[in-house]
Design goal:
The complex is a heterotrimer of chains A (784), B (159) and C (266). In chain A, strand 16 and strand 17 form a beta hairpin. Chain A is 29% helix and 23% strand. The longest helix of chain A is centred in the last third of the chain and has 27 residues, at 547-573. In chain A, the strands form seven sheets. In chain A, strands 3-5-1-12-9-10-11 form a seven-stranded mixed β-sheet, with helices on both faces. With 159 residues, chain B is of the alpha+beta class. Chain B has two domains: 2-77, Beta-grasp domain (Ubiquitin-like (UB roll), Roll), CATH 3.10.20; 88-158, [2Fe-2S]-binding domain (DNA polymerase, domain 1, Orthogonal Bundle), CATH 1.10.150.120. Chain B has five helices and five strands, in the order E-E-H-E-E-E-H-H-H-H. In chain B, helix 2 packs antiparallel against helix 5 and helix 3 crosses helix 5 (142-158). The radius of gyration of chain B is 15 Å and the shape is globular. The relative contact order of chain B is 0.16. Chain C is α+β, with helices and mostly antiparallel strands. Chain C has two domains: 5-49, Uridine Diphospho-n-acetylenolpyruvylglucosamine Reductase, domain 2, CATH 3.30.43; 57-265, Uridine Diphospho-n-acetylenolpyruvylglucosamine Reductase, domain 3. Helix content of chain C is 34%, strand content 24%. Chain C has helices at 12-21, 34-39, 75-80, 82-87, 89-95, 101-106, 109-115, 122-129, 213-221, 225-229, 246-265, and strands at residues 5-7, 25-28, 47-50, 60-63, 66-70, 132-135, 139-141, 146-148, 151-152, 160-166, 170-177, 184-192, 198-203, 210-211. A five-stranded antiparallel β-sheet of chain C has the order 4-5-10-6-7. The longest helix of chain C is centred in the last third of the chain and has 20 residues, at 246-265. The model of chain C has no long low-confidence stretch (mean pLDDT 96). The chains are: A alpha+beta (784), B alpha+beta (159), C alpha+beta (266). Chains in contact: A-B, A-C, B-C. The interface between A and B is large, with 58 and 57 residues.
């Protein structure tokens, strides 16, 4: 191999199957004697179950079984666990109410599962589900997070609907800094609830085999081993060895497919009861009601500055809506992944954040692309931009004045940034966005009756949650390492088994690039396998932009072992000392000579060990590694958004969007750009179009694509992208991760631009045309 | 309430006894086991189920199979050459990284194939408007637009 | 979707006979609204009478002074028909903004009007152009067709066969789309027939499409954007939903009307 594969725009290995309809998503899997499940869901947000009568449904054509919460309780099926224990300000553990697979006595959100009907065909199951008679005693619903603490408790264990009150930072230092500030900027806002809406709906298909008393669960999931671990240990009480979880092709996740969901457990349990495979695939309307949602914070945030614009302190008080139940990682999102990011890119010396997490009669809320970090970035970057406007300073210069410039940098909110160059990304973003000619564009827009605005967002994120021991001390109930295995075949081809899971990220290509590059092999000789607990030794899966930084490093560690063993084999074959063997471009060489053995020859010798040091070395060439990172990685970047607002209608168009990111080393720029594009679109969606609205009875008013607007092609622009590179200091690839950046930085950039265009301090997300128009009306009124 | 339906799918005549309520997409996926056509919503918004019916892009979740009686249906499985060579539009998606998770992709490609027939050299804006009935959550559309512009040109050039 | 019986009559007479015989029978045109509602089990007819084999309903006729669109003509055909584009471009433009291109390949004018969704596009043109709706029984004046939310002048079993649009001197349709559904939050169709005959049809704003007479009067005097720009529409009775308040809709009627006049004059 003449040239490195790192940094190359290699086309994706996975594309051919997706482009020809050969992809295998969970709903595409059809098993022999397949049956189909339909769930009876609560139409009420909060109600007592007086009775659930399944007799008519059981007699409906094609019906094989109808199960209720009582059946699962009788079978001692447990509730779903939460994977992170938060300890509150008083040192008490958070409140963990039971999260049943099927409702037990009460329902707590519209769409909660009351019964499951299993039939020969899907339509039969759905027909019969309509015949399940449920008598509900409707109770008042708690919907609004801000006032939930004053309403009757929806769980016995939390009479004030409060899961925890948690805080981070030095409150006294912050209060002292505020008392001597020359300027304080205050904002109060809602970080709007979002519905992730991966285009592939959730799906699960479980089979049971009497031959080995084993289960196979196909499921649209981002971390099959975690699903298996929690499902077997906490819910079904099975040995892990008896359950195989396969997450085949998965059509997008964005966090929503990390979690344990009741449906997965119901079909798995039922598969044994019926001794038939049971499949369930969400209709989109079910996804809206029962997928874990994201965000939903009510926040008051203050920034204290001195007269020159130096940040002195930040004070943040947030109420986070957790929904009706604690989803798998719900508790750590508005705490560990939120408050720790409030330093942003700045040297703010004192920060205090208090978070009250509440239960409401709405769908559970958990990580959604960015998970805590978009919320933190929104707080920091809206505050900074607003402070600049209030102090009549250039918003970019105010940022520059406060940038962290010395690394490593210990923030006052626990994180230790290893590296970064915030000036470089801001400068590049300003150049690419042609900020110096902005006033000309603004004047030109005005001529056309359009208000133009420009907004920045300089975000930082912490990726690859780590290390496990520190996460454990903070309450994590799982490890946060990753596993990888390199299996070299006798002919010299390689299969890579990774515990990371791809659902659009292109790991089959990126990871193959890393392996082919390190081994000096053509990329065609490297195959990447993921998503099957029976093939992969272990895995923590994909979330938090961790795959390349943690999963990629595990692979590199395994590769190092392969090469080390290969050198021993080559030394034997070449009759040289191991210390004299070099590995380069797919060849083991005796240094300074022309004596060499190819990788394939060494692999062959390992599996056909006729001429082999059997007394010193095991045959075979197959190595694995677990990697637990020593620190988070810290991708960062600068975004510049320009918008044009139609004064008459309030309609907002993104006129241009520039993103300059520092992801450390980049393996495949084409794939990285794609990740940024997608993140930006989701961030723009949060800012402009995506509105999740429950009415006061807890009915979801935005329960379909007819009412919930995920961005369409006409809603987003073509993006201007660039990167700057400060390699991560603590992993061998120097990589940081790129999956969430766009969704983290975009909302603040867009809202900073719109508020600039309108000349207002704040505006609620999503800034729909209606919202913008109303704000313009208020403003015009105020002037009169 | 069963009915007999006959149509041509990817050039092959097919017929079946179906429940009359069977959607075209269900017929394609469950009965013909052509699972490249996907279902992403229940309100005919997402376009993942797009196929060509008599050459025109339609959402196969939005009609019952009987409405396609006698029609000529093309699904994603019928687009590449029999030897497996990608159609220029498929190739353009690959070259321009116009797909990530792949779930919306068949619908995108099918709609693009139809669109490109009348737009041999489209502008970005024309492509964006043509995608009004196709939702993608991964790509931010940037590379899908690039792919369709390139694919349409390649199709025109191949004529 | 609940089970139903499917029928495909070969002619109009059989279609009507079938529909009249069945209590819960529905005509099936393009299916772009009906099948969706059935999938969500919001609509559950016992019988579907598919009109696809009725060739007579698929004619698109352009004559001097009138465009007649058969009930089963798809939106895409109206949008791309060269004779419609020449004779009544505003109607083609309206048809080209309905739903999305896949929906336009199947959706029909007859289905759209019979459904009378409050946010559908065609009703604005029916009122804005003073169209005549022909059914198997009679001709219905456009102005008398829309009766309320999803309610029309059609009697049970009555079937739209064609819609005839008079050709104005100039016309245009302006639509402000719902960001999610892409239906009209407000759509305004403005047509000037000359001689003081001006019509303004509004969709999306109320329970069903309606004419805006104040604007018609103003445009009669002077067909110019400024004639309507100052008209403040009352929000009373306008739709209120997540996407737009009555006040916003009222405001958009004025803005869309102004822009439609501008476009008609171009």
């Amino acid at each position: 191999m003449e040239h490195s594969l790192i940094g190359k725009r290699i086309q994706r290995k996975e594309d051919y199957r997706f482009l020809t309809g050969a992809g295998q998503y969970t709903d595409d899997v059809e098993l022999p004697k397949q049956t189909f499940a339909a769930f009876v869901r609560s139409p009420h947000a909060h109600a007592r179950l007086k009775s659930v009568n399944v007799e008519k449904a059981k007699k409906a054509p094609g019906v094989l079984a109808v199960y209720t919460g009582q059946d699962l309780a009788d079978a001692k099926v447990g509730g779903l666990p939460c994977g992170w224990l938060i300890t509150d300000v008083k040192g008490q553990p958070m409140k963990e109410p039971p999260y049943p697979v099927l409702a037990q006595g009460k329902v707590r959100h519209v769409g909660e599962r009351v019964a499951v009907v299993i039939a020969e065909t899907l339509e039969q199951a759905r027909d019969a589900a309509e015949r399940v008679e449920v008598d509900y005693e409707v109770l008042p619903a708690v919907v609004d997070a801000a006032t939930a603490g004053r309403k009757p408790g929806i769980h016995e264990i939390a009479p004030d609907n409060t899961c925890y009150v948690w805080a981070l930072g030095d409150k006294a230092a912050v209060d002292a800094a505020f008392s001597k500030a020359s300027h304080v900027t205050t904002l109060e806002f809602v970080n709007n609830r979002l519905v992730p809406n991966a285009i592939e709906p959730r799906s699960a298909n479980a089979a049971y085999s009497r031959a080995d008393d084993g289960y196979t669960l196909y499921v649209a999931n981002q971390n099959p081993h975690v699903e298996r671990l929690l499902m077997t240990a906490f819910v079904l009480g099975l040995p892990e060895s008896k359950v195989r979880v396969v997450a085949p092709d998965v059509g997008g996740g964005f966090g929503s497919k990390i979690y344990l969901y009741p449906e997965d457990h119901a079909v798995t349990w039922a598969a044994k009861k019926l001794n038939r495979p049971v499949k369930w695939t969400a209709e989109r309307s079910e996804s809206f009601l029962s997928d874990a949602h994201g965000r939903d914070h009510v926040t008051r945030a203050e920034l204290a500055l001195d007269k020159d614009g130096k940040f002195l302190a930040m004070r943040v008080k947030t109420t986070a809506n957790l929904g009706a139940y604690l989803s798998t990682f719900a508790s750590c999102i508005p705490t560990i992944l939120y408050a720790t990011l409030l330093a942003g890119q700045y040297t703010t010396p004192a920060i205090y954040c208090e978070v009250t997490a509440v239960f409401t009669n709405t769908a559970p809320v958990d990580a959604y692309r960015g998970a805590g970090r978009p919320e933190a970035t929104y707080v920091v970057e809206r505050l900074v931009e607003t402070a600049a406007r209030e102090m009549k300073m250039d918003p970019a210069e105010l940022r520059r004045k406060n940038f962290i410039r010395q690394f490593p940098y210990q923030t006052p909110v626990a994180l230790l940034y290893d590296t970064g160059d915030y000036e470089a990304t801001l400068k590049a973003a300003q150049d690419l966005a042609d900020v110096s000619n902005y006033e000309k564009r603004r004047a030109e827009s005005l001529k056309r009756g359009k208000l133009r605005g420009l907004g920045y967002a300089c975000y930082i994120e912490a990726c690859g949650i780590a290390p496990s021991n520190i996460a454990g001390a903070l309450g994590a109930r799982a490890g946060l390492f990753e596993a990888g295995e390199i299996r070299v075949h006798p002919t010299g081809t390689v299969t890579v088994f990774t515990g990371s899971h791809a659902h659009g990220q292109g790991h089959e290509t990126t990871f193959a690039q890393v392996v082919a590059d390190r081994l000096g092999l053509p990329i065609e000789k490297v195959e990447v396998v993921h998503g099957d607990t029976s093939k992969i030794l272990f895995g923590m899966g994909t979330y938090g932009s961790r795959s390349i930084a943690v999963g990629g490093t595990a692979i590199v560690k395994a590769l190092d072992k392969v090469i080390a063993k290969g050198r021993k084999i080559a030394a034997h074959l070449l009759e040289a000392g191991e210390q004299d063997i070099e590995y380069e471009n797919g060849t083991f060489k005796v240094a300074g000579t022309d004596r060499q053995k190819s990788f394939a020859e060494v692999a062959f010798a390992a599996y056909v060990p006729h001429n082999y040091p059997l007394d010193k070395l095991e045959p075979g060439l197959n190595e694995n590694a677990f990697y637990d990172p020593t620190n988070f990685t810290f991708p960062a970047g600068s975004y510049v958004c320009e918008v044009e607002v139609d004064k008459e209608t309030g309609a907002t168009q993104i006129a241009s969007f520039v993103a300059v990111d520092d992801f450390g080393k980049i393996i495949n720029p084409m794939i990285v750009e794609g990740q940024v594009h997608g993140g930006l679109a989701q961030g723009i969606g949060q800012a402009l179009t995506e509105c999740t609205r429950y009415d006061s009875d807890g009915q979801l008013l935005t329960g379909s694509f007819s009412d919930y607007a995920i961005p369409r092609a006409t809603d987003v622009p073509s993006f201007g992208l660039d990167t700057r590179e400060t390699p991560c200091t603590h992993n061998p690839l120097g990589v940081k991760g790129c999956g969430e950046a766009g969704a983290i930085g975009a909302p603040a950039a867009v809202m900073n631009a719109i508020t600039d265009a309108l000349g207002v301090k704040d505006l609620a997300m999503p800034a729909t045309s209606h919202t913008v128009w109303k704000k313009l009306q208020e403003k015009n009124h105020a002037r009169v | 309430m069963s009915v007999k339906v006959s149509m041509k799918v990817n050039g092959q005549p097919v017929s079946a006894e179906l429940e009359s309520r069977t959607l075209l997409v269900t017929f394609i996926r469950e009965h013909l086991r052509l699972t490249g056509t996907h279902v992403g919503c229940d309100t005919a918004q997402c376009g993942a189920c797009t196929v060509l019916m008599n050459g025109k892009a339609i959402k196969s979740c939005s009609i019952v199979a009987m409405q396609a009686e006698g029609a000529d249906i093309l699904t994603i499985e019928g687009v590449a050459k029999p030897d497996g060579t990608l159609h220029p539009m498929q190739a353009a998606f690959k070259e321009n990284h116009g797909l990530q998770c792949g779930f919306c992709t068949p619908g995108m490609v099918m709609n693009a194939l139809d669109f490109a027939k009348s737009h041999p050299n489209p502008t970005d804006q024309e492509v964006r408007e043509a995608l009004e009935g196709n939702l993608c959550r991964c790509t931010g559309y940037h590379n899908i637009v690039k792919s369709i512009v390139a694919g349409a040109r390649a199709m025109a050039a191949a004529k | 979707m609940r089970a139903f019986e499917y029928h495909r009559p070969a002619n109009l007479k059989d279609a009507v006979a079938l529909a009249e015989k069945k209590d819960e029978g529905r005509y099936l045109a393009g299916g772009q609204s009906l099948v969706q509602a059935m999938k969500l089990r919001l609509s559950a007819p016992t019988d579907l009478v598919d009109l696809n084999a009725l060739q007579d309903l698929k004619a698109l006729k352009v004559e001097p002074g009138a465009v007649t669109v058969g009930a089963m003509v798809r939106h895409a055909e109206v949008a791309s028909s060269s004779s419609v584009l020449k004779t009544l471009p505003a109607l083609a433009a309206l048809a080209g903004q309905i739903g999305d291109r896949q929906v336009r390949h199947l959706g029909t004018i007859g289905g759209s009007l019979a459904n009378n969704d409050p946010a559908a596009d065609y009703p604005a043109a029916v009122l804005g152009l003073g169209a005549t709706i022909t059914t198997n029984k009679r001709k219905i004046e456009g102005d008398k067709f829309f009766k309320g939310l999803y309610e029309t002048a059609l009697q049970p079993g009555e079937l739209i066969t064609a819609v005839t649009f008079p050709v104005p001197k100039r016309a245009a349709y302006m639509k402000f789309k719902n960001p999610a559904s892409r239906f009209a939050i407000v759509g305004v169709f403005v047509a000037d027939f000359g001689g003081g005959n001006v019509r303004v049809g509004v969709t999306g704003a109320g329970p069903c499409a309606f004419r805006q007479s104040e604007m018609e009067q103003a445009l009669k005097k002077n067909f110019a954007p400024d004639s309507v720009a100052g008209i403040k529409v009352s929000p009373d009775g306008l739709n209120n939903d997540l996407h737009a308040s009555p006040e916003y809709r009222a405001h958009l009627i004025t803005i869309m009307a102004k822009r439609a006049v501008e476009a008609a004059l171009k």
